[in-house]
Structure formats: structure tokens, C-alpha cells
Design brief:
By secondary structure, the chain is an alpha/beta fold. The protein is built from 18 helices and 25 strands. It is globular and about 80 Å long. It binds ligand LLZGTKA7.
Length: 618
């Protein structure tokens, strides 16, 4: 961990159960390989993870069992260590490659823009060679225009200590916003391919299906069915991601799936025991008799826990390799000047730990303070306008104190700009927000998972929560100003900060954090936590800017006839569709760029202007 990260507080710990084959799993690290500098409970870095894995491998060897390392994508975008360099990832590709990952795959973030697709092909795939799997992803070679597999489709191998035969895949969900130099094949089509049909007939002792796929998404369901149909008794371990949550799903008593959170907060632990080695090539009675057990832990990524699980301490834990990688991270952060402050945040602003609207909500801040200031341009400053942003654009809370170069990318890593349609009749424009937020039938006609699924406007954390019955229409309720909140399944919280405002009486020795409930129960987290309340927020927020002034007597101003409809470009497909249904028939030709800077750069400029100060640093 970086020097200066406070020591995590002692907390009640749950141990790891070992099986014949064990997995350490990271997913959706989004460039947070330097760990969380403002949150000690997630402050271990990729170097510490390397030390941890080395010790755990030695333990596995002692026990005569196997340990595999898995990463399920979205390694990029979301932290200055990746985003602040030019080219992006100048430091992180070298840092990530230091961990000898056994199976890794691609996330949707590796595919948003052509440059990152190319870097994945030219850097990460060769870095990991046979470990990199691309079961449903192709690359378009720039020199030839040929469509080739981004990496190998699957991998069959024998484990080191148990000699188990494993067939592993690496999938991505049916992502349809990939850059033009990549092609994502739908999982339903991939499973018809000859190579896949051959792979599921390889008769291994265990299938390992890795994927940048939420555990409750249809893609894993489909893969489970097709593999199980051909292999009645073979254990299947799924390792997924994308939803940014901790989760464990049972498909049947021989097939389970783990998801290991986000942003290097969590190292997932999955163990499988009771695997019977197959006699030669057949589905034998022995295999049928096998009754594997699957266990899971979600490890809070801090040194206190990593020491606990290895039985080591501050002196004995760091390996030379791990320490070197921690130094690489510190060097990269320094060269990128990530700790340089743009300003000083006067208070904490929460994504889902505060109700919307409220003074503690980052989205109220965005709607009331930021959008009116940045969704503007000199030549149209007096034109009344509506400015719309999706809440998924904001990726992380803002903590009181220094708002740094790093914070900018942590809060909003995207390269989106503001687009606009000018002179839209207000009668049509004013109906757009409600439709985006789930009011009316417009978007309900689109299939879940399709390009216009409005879930894609919010953070993955929220749509994962929204799949639970008690928050089925979370975004609509939030828009209607009905607070929707869930106890538990908490997100991050800096150690040492005060209560969550719920007034709940806390056990003195628990700190707030994840309290995961999954298909195996509520004892998955390696650290017992006090729960955090999760409040759903709307899909989009909107500011009215330069509207006719309110009258002296306190009455609202007149409605404008026409407005500029300004929106973050990511939201454009939804905005155009909503406009069609509200009487404004516009197409992409009617859309123009409103401002040339990215929203992230405009946000940084707003911080500099409005939160000036160094937080009292000497
Ligand atoms: O340009 C973009 C791209 C994505 N988003 C938001 O992110 C989620 C997807 O998050 P994952 O970590 O990435 O896959 C998407 O649903 C959008 O809400 C965005 O706002 N802008």
C-alpha cells in the first residue's frame, strides 16, 4: 500500500476455506491498481495483491491443492493511474502484467474506443499470451481489415498440483457499443460455433467460465444451460463481473458463480472441493457420484486482512516482487501528478448513500450547481435550455477535502462531450426527462439488455440492485422523489467518518462496509461490517438554465417557447427516441456539438473556479 494510508481498524474476520481448486478473482478494477488512498479498508494495491498471491500459491503447494488467478475485465478507465497518462494506460498495462493471471478476459470498457481496443490487442493479449481468452470477441486488424479472434477462444489445461483437467472460457456480455475495430458476437450465436461445441465435449474435470457478465444476466444462464446439457455431472465455476457488486449465484448443486465487486475494493475467493477426476474420456459413474462443494469469500482489499489470511505481518508479508510493483505505482502516480489538487471539496457528496435530492447527493450538486455553469457557451448563453446528464456518468463519491487530478477521473472518466439540438419546442423538450426516468411506456417496449434499455443510464451498481424485487422500479421512484433505500449491500465509506445519518445504533467494533447477501446467505464478506443504506437515484438529472426569471411575487417565470436541448452525448440515443414520442421528430443530423471540451475537463474547471483552496495544506 502507498505510504500514508492509515492502518485499517481491527475487525472481526471470517477465514478462507480451501478446496481442491481455489480462485483469487478481481474484476472491474478500472485502473484502481494503486488502491484507495482515501479509504483504508480498500487501500492495498496491486503490489500487495502480488505479494498475497505469491504467499497463497505457496500455501496451495503445501496443501497439494491448486490456486488460479482470474480477472474478468474492465481493467481500464476510472482512475488517474490509467486515464491521466498520454497515451492512456502508459503505467497500468505494465503494472497489471506483473501479476501472473491464469485466465483473463475483456470488459466493455476495453472496447468503448478504438485506441483501447488496439492497446488491448497489442499490449495485454501478448502480455498474458494463452491466459487471455476471447470467446466471443474479434479484432479488426488495421493493416488488413481482417476480422480475427482478439485472443484464443478457450483454453484446456491441467492444474499443477491436483492434475485436474480444466476447460476455461472468457466471455463478454452482448455489448453493442463496441468501437468499430472490434466485433462482439452475441453469446446465443457463439454457442452454435463449431469450436464451442467441440470445447464443451472436451470432458474436463471442471469447466471454468470467466466473463465480463453480471451473474444475473441472461448470458451466463444460457452458457450454464448449454454446458450442462452436454455435461450432466461436471462442476462448473463461473467468475463474472460488470455489475460492480459482490454476488454468488447457484445454478445447480454443481454450478455456482461469483462476482467480486469493483475498483480493487474486493478480492474474490472461490474454492471448489469434492471434484472427482474423470476416468479417461467418459461421463462415468464416478463423475455422477461427485458432489462438489463451492465456497466463497469477498476479501476486503486491505493489508490487515491480507496479513490475516496469510498468517503474516508487516515485515514478513511484502515480497520483493510485490514491493517493486508498489514502487512502480508510486512512481507512476508521482509522474502523473495525481495528488495535485484542483480544489477542496467542502463536504462529502454521495452517489447512493444519500437520498436524491438532498444536500449530500452528488446528483443534486450536479443538477443545481455544476450543470448550470458548464452547460453554457458564449454565443447561446441567453438561450433558455435544458441540460441532461445520466447519473451513470458519475462513477464515485466525492470526499470532503482535496479534489485532485486523480479525483477527476475517479468521479467521471468518460470522454463524453455536450451535444445539443437547438430550438426544440419546449412542449416536447420538457417531456424528455420523465421518459428517460421510466415514466410512461416509451422505453419499456425495448427488451432488457437492448441498446435502449434505460438501465444503461445508471451506474451498474444501481441496475444490479434494481434487479432485486424490492427496488424493481427504483429509478422511477427516485424521480418521483420517493426515497428508495435498501439496508445492507453497502458501498464504500471512509474509515473514521461519522454515522450514515440513519441514526442506527452501531456495534462499537464494526465499521461500515459491505454486508453482502447472496445465494449462500450473508456470511460471504471476510470482514463483518455495519451495513450502509443504498438510495436509488434517477436515470438522468436535468437543469433548467437561462429560463425567464421568476416574477417578483414569487410566481414561476413564463415557460419559453423553444429551448436548446443540451445533453451528454452518451444519452443521445435515448434523447432522440424520447423526443420522437413527445412530438419532436429529430435525428442525428439535427444534433451538433455544444461544447468542445469533455464533460470531465469542464468538471475539473468548475472545481478550480468554485472550490479554490488547498484544504489548509502547509
Ligand atoms: O460513455 C459512457 C460509458 C458508460 N457510462 C455509464 O457506465 C455504465 C457502464 O459501466 P460499466 O462499468 O462500465 O460497464 C453505463 O451503464 C453508463 O451508465 C456513461 O455514463 N458514459
Amino acid at each position: 500500500a502507498q505510504p500514508g494510508a492509515a492502518a485499517p481498524v481491527a475487525a472481526p474476520m471470517r477465514d478462507l476455506d480451501w478446496g481442491q481448486i481455489n480462485f483469487l478473482h478481481t474484476t472491474d478494477t478500472h485502473g484502481w491498481h494503486g488502491g484507495h488512498l482515501q479509504e483504508p479498508q480498500y487501500s492495498a494495491d496491486w503490489g500487495d495483491y502480488i505479494s498475497f498471491a505469491e504467499h497463497m500459491k505457496a500455501k496451495a503447494d503445501e496443501k497439494g491443492v491448486d490456486l488460479l488467478l482470474i480477472d474478468t475485465g474492465d481493467r481500464i478507465e476510472g482512475n488517474g493511474l490509467y486515464d491521466a497518462s498520454d497515451p492512456k494506460g502508459k503505467y497500468t498495462y505494465d503494472i497489471v502484467r506483473e501479476q501472473p493471471i491464469d485466465v483473463l478476459c475483456t470488459g466493455n470498457h476495453e472496447l468503448y474506443i478504438e485506441d483501447s481496443v488496439r492497446r488491448e490487442h497489442d499490449i495485454t493479449v501478448p502480455n498474458f499470451r494463452d491466459a487471455y481468452l476471447a470467446s466471443n470477441l474479434d479484432y479488426i486488424e488495421p493493416q488488413t481489415g481482417n476480422q480475427i479472434p482478439q485472443a484464443r477462444r478457450y483454453r484446456k489445461f491441467k492444474t499443477k498440483n491436483q492434475g485436474l483437467t480444466v476447460v476455461a472460457f472468457g466471455f463478454l456480455f452482448d455489448f453493442d457499443r463496441a468501437a468499430n475495430n472490434s466485433v462482439v458476437q452475441k453469446v446465443e450465436d457463439t454457442i452454435k460455433e463449431d469450436w464451442f461445441q467441440k470445447a464443451i465435449r472436451e470432458k474436463p474435470d471442471l469447466f471454468v467460465v470467466t466473463g465480463h457478465v453480471g451473474l444475473r444476466m441472461k448470458e451466463f444462464e444460457l452458457l450454464f444451460k448449454v454446458i450442462r446439457q452436454e455435461n450432466w455431472y461436471t462442476p462448473i465455476a463461473f467468475l463474472g463481473g460488470h455489475a460492480h457488486v459482490r454476488d454468488f449465484r447457484k445454478f445447480d448443486d454443481k454450478a455456482y458463480a461469483i462476482a467480486s465487486g469493483r475498483y480493487m475494493e474486493t478480492i474474490g475467493w472461490l474454492s471448489v472441493d469434492g471434484i472427482k477426476k474423470r476416468a479417461k474420456d467418459s461421463e462415468t459413474a464416478i463423475a455422477a457420484a461427485a458432489s462438489p462443494t463451492f465456497k466463497r469469500r469477498y476479501i476486503d482489499n486491505n493489508l490487515y486482512g491480507l496479513h490475516h489470511h496469510t498468517g503474516l505481518n508487516e515485515t514478513t508479508f511484502p515480497t520483493e516482487h510485490g514491493r517493486n510493483v508498489t514502487q512502480m505505482i508510486a512512481k507512476g502516480r508521482k509522474e502523473l501528478k495525481l495528488d495535485q489538487a484542483y480544489g477542496c471539496a467542502p463536504q462529502d457528496l454521495w452517489m447512493n448513500r444519500a437520498e436524491f435530492p438532498s444536500n449530500a447527493s452528488v446528483f443534486t450538486w450536479l443538477e443545481e450547481q455544476v450543470l448550470p455553469a458548464i452547460a453554457t457557451r458564449d454565443d447561446r448563453a441567453d438561450v433558455p435550455r435544458l441540460a441532461i446528464a445520466n447519473t451513470g456518468m458519475i462513477r464515485f463519491d466525492i470526499f470532503k477535502g482535496a479534489f485532485t487530478v486523480d479525483s477527476t477521473y475517479i468521479v467521471s472518466p468518460f470522454i463524453s462531450k455536450f451535444n445539443y439540438i437547438q430550438d426544440v419546442p419546449y412542449s416536447a423538450a420538457k417531456r424528455v426527462l420523465a421518459m428517460l426516468n421510466g415514466g410512461g411506456p416509451v422505453f419499456s417496449a425495448f427488451e432488457a439488455g437492448s441498446a435502449l434499455d434505460t438501465r444503461y443510464l445508471v451506474s451498474p451498481e444501481q441496475w444490479a440492485f434494481a434487479e432485486r424485487p424490492q427496488v424493481a422500479n427504483a429509478a422511477a421512484a427516485a424521480e418521483a422523489r420517493t426515497p428508495v433505500h435498501l439496508q445492507g449491500d453497502g458501498l464504500q465509506k471512509p474509515l473514521g467518518s461519522e454515522g450514515d445519518g440513519s441514526g442506527s445504533k452501531k456495534k462499537p467494533d464494526l465499521i461500515t462496509g459491505y454486508t453482502t447477501k447472496d445465494d449462500l446467505g450473508d456470511d460471504g464478506d471476510d470482514t463483518e461490517h455495519e451495513p450502509i443504506t443504498f438510495y436509488a437515484v434517477p436515470n438522468c438529472v436535468q437543469s433548467e438554465i437561462a429560463f425567464p426569471a421568476a416574477q417578483q411575487d414569487g410566481q414561476g417565470g413564463e415557460e419559453p417557447d423553444k429551448v436548446d436541448l443540451v445533453f451528454v452525448d452518451y444519452v443521445q440515443p435515448w434523447v432522440l427516441t424520447a423526443l420522437k414520442f413527445s412530438g419532436g421528430d429529430y435525428g442525428t443530423d439535427d444534433v451538433a456539438v455544444y461544447r468542445n471540451q469533455t464533460v470531465t475537463d469542464l468538471l475539473a474547471a468548475w472545481i478550480t473556479d468554485h472550490w479554490a483552496g488547498d484544504c489548509g495544506a502547509k
